[in-house]
Amino acid sequence: MATDYTTDRGVQLMLAYQQGEEAAFDQLVEEYSGQVFALLTRFLGQRPGREDLVQEVFMRVIRSRDRYEAKARFSTWLYRIVFNMAVNETQRSSRTGFLSLDQPLGDDAEGGGLIEVTDGNVENPSDGMERDDVVLAVRQAIADLPEQQRAALILAKYHETPYVEIAEILGSSEKAIKSLIHRARETLRQSLAPLLHEGGMV
Amino acid sequence: MNQFNEFHQGTGCREFRDKLSCALEGRPLPKQLSSLAWHEHLVACPSCRLLLEREEALEVLLATLPEPKLPPDLTRRLVARLSEEDAGSEPGDASGVGLDDLLDVAGAPVPAGLGARVRAGLRSELALDALLDLDSEVVVPPGLSADILRGLSAERRPPVSRLRLVRSAPAYAAAAGFLLAAVAISFWSGAFRGEEAETPKGSTEEVAVLQTDAAPGEALGGPEDSLLAVLDLIENDELWLDTQDGAELAAGELDLHLLLSDSLEMSDELLLTYIEEDLDEIETPSGG
Predict the structure, then answer these.
(1) For position B216, what pLDDT does the model report?
(2) pLDDT band for position A179 (cuts 50, 70, 90)
(3) Predicted TM-score of the model (pTM)
(4) Residue A141, Cα to own-chain centre: how many angstroms?
(5) Per-residue confidence (pLDDT) for residue B179, from 0 to 100
(6) How many CB pairs under 8 A join A and B?
(7) In this predicted structure, what is the pLDDT of residue A61?
(8) Which H or E run contains A180?
(9) What chain A residue is nearest to B138 in terms of C-alpha separation?
């Protein structure tokens, strides 16, 4: 049974754009560029040039104009583009020697990446751990996750995307996504254990 | 297939875990699984207890409870209560249903300490979420969408496809016809003057022969082919009649324009320029 996605605001805009309504595209950029930027930031880290990537995403939207079909929520379709591009970007970065999220980021000379949580803090994290340090540690822990786990966790946790849609975005099954997220959380619980115990959260 | 195979399996484990899978994935539970059976197995099987604790234990347990016993806002109150305990206040029954009461379903014996472990597991989930929530905001640069739209303005210029160019501007199409006719006529009246009167109709080959005769140094191909095609068309009086009448060009002739601009490797802009120049020429004929 095919689901009707035409009630989805993004789908409506995209279909209007397909019919030649240029303003609908402006509206899509208006409404979705922030989400795309946030998703790329979470997935790739605070690297420079993310705005260009957002632009690239919408470039692909333009180029898909004629062959677009409303087979999913617009965000699902859009995030699939984002995810594919982010993966390409990480591969390109690792080839060209830019920072890759699958490697430690501590020696990132740009200073825009994730900052390494210093070893001194690990032993007794409550000493001198400011909120920002905790945030950085959380980001680092997420950055250390394998690509698929990281993507699934970010979509589920920060973009409140249902499992079934994450599965569509990542080209996987709902069950596999559940398992990915479970493993991601398990890994995070371990890597963030010092912080979980610190601050009386357990 | 079972996602819990990493755990030790004893009697009844497979059934229990299959059903746990159902519950975790939101599929309907098999009818024969009563909450009592859950607990009986849990009491007997430390491995499954461990597994349950690792999973979303509380939710699973809650799902097995008989409906009438569940207050509508149970989960919310439970979470609130656990948060209170986290905050250091005394646990008390006044705030709602106690977790231990919940676990004590239908009189089934509950393994000692299960409640505490479930509670700890839930807290650990909540704690992790709390930690992840610290990084809940990504700062989006102000004016991002405006920048994006500006950056994409070149990409969004409507594509000047050849077909669209001709279709959307019949005047240009007609002008292109004049251009082709003019080129062809000058060709004809110059190189082929002698042959003009008796040129047989139809055959491109014959025209090609004529053309090689006239310009022996030039190889055939590309622009020449296109011109031959034009000649062919003129011979059949199609282009000529249409342009003479000022009528809109027929579809077959649109193809001709495309063919011409393609084989001459003209850009759209260049094609447009030619057409425009020719329009001017037609408006002020130079007597040739």
Answers:
(1) 41
(2) confident
(3) 0.51
(4) 14
(5) 80
(6) 86
(7) 94
(8) helix A174-191
(9) A38
| Probe site for chain A from B128, B153, B168 (most A CB atoms < 10 A) | B128
Q: Is the pLDDT of residue A8 over 60?
A: yes
Report, as an integer, the average pLDDT of A19-28. Answer: 94
Q: Which CATH architecture has domain A117-202?
A: Orthogonal Bundle (1.10)
Of A76-90, A107-121, B12-26, B164-178, the range with the lowest mean pLDDT is: A107-121
* CATH code for residues A1-101: 1.10.1740.10
Q: Which residues of chain B are under the pLDDT cut of 70?
A: 1-11, 20-39, 52-122, 157-173, 175, 190-288
Q: Look at residue A32 in the predicted model and tell me its pLDDT.
A: 94
Measure in Å the smallest separation between the Cα of B156 and chain A Cα atoms. Answer: 7
Choose among B88, B138, B156: nearest Cβ to A62. Answer: B156
Tokens describing residue B56: 């979303």
B56/A178 Cα distance (integer angstroms) = 12
Contact B141 A195 (CB under 8 A): no
Domain extent listing, chain B: 13-133, 162-283
The closest of A38, A23, A86 to A60, measured between CA atoms, is A86
Tell if the CB–CB gap between A157 and B149 is shorter than 8 Å: no
CA–CA dist B199, B179 (Å, integer): 22
Chosen for mutation from B135, B139, B163 (greatest number of chain A CBs closer than 10 Å) is: B135
Q: Using an 8 Å Cβ cutoff, are A144 and A100 in contact?
A: no
Q: Which long-range contacts (CB under 8 A, 24 or more apart) does B92-101 make?
A: B96/B71, B97/B71
Q: In Å, how far is B277's CA from the nearest CA of chain A?
A: 31
The closest alpha carbon to A53, from A86, A93, A20, A30, belongs to A86
Distance CA B127, CA B118 (A): 14
Q: Give the whole-angstrom CA distance, residue A60 versus residue B47.
A: 50
pLDDT: which is higher, A109 or B261: B261
Interface test with A, best of B125, B152, B161, B163 (most A CBs within 10 A): B152
Per CB-CB distance under 8 Å, the chain B contacts of A26 are 149
Helix (H, G, I), strand (E, B) or coil at A197: helix
Residue extents of the structural domains in chain A: 1-101, 117-202
The pLDDT of A94-99, averaged and rounded, is 62
Cβ neighbours around B268 below 10 Å, total: 14
Alpha helix (H) residue ranges in chain B = 13-24, 35-44, 46-54, 57-64, 74-86, 99-103, 114-133, 144-151, 153-156, 162-168, 170-191, 204-214, 223-235, 238-245, 251-263, 268-283
Closest by Cα among B141, B211, B87 to A38: B141
